[in-house]
């Protein structure tokens, strides 16, 4: 894990993905002075539970919820690509659009969802997650660093940038654990900001404690600790 990180970019498929997977970790980074940017590929327009809310109102609602959630963990730069929720594919267009933001933000570290299917739990393997994970990894290498890939980006003034490290969230065995016990309340607050999505979650805090304590126990942390899990890949 590189230590001298100035900027990090979180590339996720839907509003709330970053909060379920990494909001506690983000809080520890912003507290340490790291500048964090969120790039959300879709507006989450296929989400929600209330048939009384017109579908055309969901996208702006979920954008607003994500911005509110980001503030809970010290993030103010939240960007959206507007791809259709539930229909994301790892296309050249998506690779280009992610590479553009990498070149704009120029992060040392990029966090992405896993491009692999999880056969223990289906939820982390949403097709949009896998597509975004795959496209984001390709955007990191080779697209963002190669000045001759997507020449239109250079024509726009976005010079090539080499990311030094990638973190994959919801990874399998051999994870890197981040102890988020001290900022757990901020993770919960960030998720509660997604009111349109958690209305049917009876015990959000208990559910989170279950997952996070299992991570901590698996990694040998002390009893009562809570941790988010990642796989770290050198990228430079």
From TrEMBL:
Q: Cite a single GO BP annotation.
A: glycoside metabolic process
Q: Which GO terms describe its molecular function?
A: hydrolase activity, acting on carbon-nitrogen (but not peptide) bonds, in linear amides
Matches recorded under InterPro entries? GlcNAc_PI_deacetylase-related, LmbE-like_dom_sf
Top-level division of the source organism's lineage: Bacteria
Record-linked Gene3D superfamilies: LmbE-like
Q: Is Zinc set as a keyword in this record?
A: yes
- Coiled coil, from the record: none
Keywords from the named record = Zinc
Q: What is this protein called?
A: LmbE family N-acetylglucosaminyl deacetylase
Q: What organism does the UniProt record list as the source?
A: Actinoallomurus bryophytorum
């Amino acid at each position: 894990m590189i230590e001298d990180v100035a900027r990090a970019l979180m590339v996720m498929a839907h509003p709330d993905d970053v909060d379920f997977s990494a909001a506690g970790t983000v809080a520890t980074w912003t507290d340490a002075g790291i500048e964090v940017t969120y790039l959300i590929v879709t507006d989450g327009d296929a989400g929600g539970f209330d048939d009384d809310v017109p579908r055309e109102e969901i996208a702006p609602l979920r954008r607003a919820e994500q911005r509110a959630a980001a503030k809970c963990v010290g993030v103010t730069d939240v960007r959206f690509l507007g791809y259709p929720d539930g229909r994301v594919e790892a296309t050249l267009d998506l690779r280009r659009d992610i590479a553009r933001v990498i070149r704009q933000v120029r992060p040392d570290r990029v966090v992405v969802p896993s491009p692999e299917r999880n056969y223990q739990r289906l939820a982390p393997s949403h097709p949009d997650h896998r597509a975004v994970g795959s496209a984001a990894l390709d955007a990191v290498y080779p697209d963002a660093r190669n000045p001759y890939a997507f020449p239109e980006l250079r024509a726009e003034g976005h010079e090539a940038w080499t990311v030094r490290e990638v973190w994959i969230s919801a990874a399998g065995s051999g994870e890197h654990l981040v102890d988020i016990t001290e900022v757990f309340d901020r993770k919960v607050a960030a998720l509660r900001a997604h009111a349109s999505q958690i209305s049917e979650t009876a015990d959000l805090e208990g559910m989170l404690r279950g997952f996070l304590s299992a991570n901590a126990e698996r990694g040998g942390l002390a009893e009562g600790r809570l941790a988010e899990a990642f796989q770290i890949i050198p990228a430079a």
